[in-house]
Design brief:
By secondary structure, this protein is of the alpha/beta class. It is built from twelve helices and 14 strands. 31% of the residues lie in helices and 19% in strands. The termini are far apart. Bound molecules: zinc ion (ZN).
Amino acid sequence: MAKRAFLTITLLAAAALAQTASARPFDDPRASQFPALDNDAAANTEPRDPACHALTLAATGGAMPKNAGTLAVRWTGFANYELVYNGQILLLDAYFDRGRLYPSLGFKADDIKRANGILLGHGHFDHMSDAASVGARTGAIVVGAPVTTEKLATQAIEAKQVRTVTGRGGEEFQLGSFKIEPILGRHGEPPPTLVDAFEGALRRTAKQPTDEELAEQVAIRARGTSDRRVVAEGTIAYLITLDSGFRIYYRNSGGRVTDYEKAAMARVGRVDLALAAVAASYLNNLTAEQGLEYLRVYKPDVFMPAHHDAANHGLWRAIEPVFQALKDEKPDLVTVSKTYREPTCFDTRVNNGKPR
Ligand SMILES: [Zn+2]
């Protein structure tokens, strides 16, 4: 009897220990690199933070991170990202209702009820098609290049919500706890011979879309611009600095790094997190080369890809060869790629802006 009681107590103690060990708000992907995160005894006794585990965006009614220093990041297809920090929501790009030819993101533009800001990297439809409707519903400020906001001016959103930026300097602004610096980037320019060859092959082999599916795509495409200025004047990168000092660099098209970007990065040195598009060049050596340029200029601790998914009958852009090339050059780089809406959380009190 005594033996059984002892066993019960031992089991209970073990269960309690296990619970303590797993009771951690979230796993910061940098924990294996930074002892400050791994050994944070105080944080390790806090309960799991639902905002860092649930598949629901804060923008569609999901939880906000419990700690003011926690950043929750969710990829939602193409170059869309949701950043949630200190009670505020920043959406990067807005292309959610992609039509039946695309895999579902698990929510619709209509489901987005809350956002403080929408930063548009450029005005092609696959980056801005839902910016006006989401902006109008949430009251979020919508930011983009002149060619992007010219399009917004034709859509159902109030002009006072729209901010035009050129990325040529002196445009830094504060949105809640996010300090935002627009920087002129450049759109991707994949080699036409490759694009023609791959798109031709996909067209010949993929299931032909129905008339309804095509009509749906025409309507979605009409909510973006195809102005040629997008390439050199219409692609904006954003350097986002949280009030904790944590820096994020957002780059929504896989184009060459500009002198404006190099100057901005020479000033700040490096970022904690890069959210950067995989180039549309199809071949792994070319997408890796573009990723390496980002690594060398932005100098991130963590790299998360964007613009790598595709229509149901298309071809996703492989991220593993990019990750391999980046890690060959910088073995301690942390690479993270998740599925739609899966959160990644960071304890932003640990960052490059502070000694650690
Ligand atoms: Zn584009």
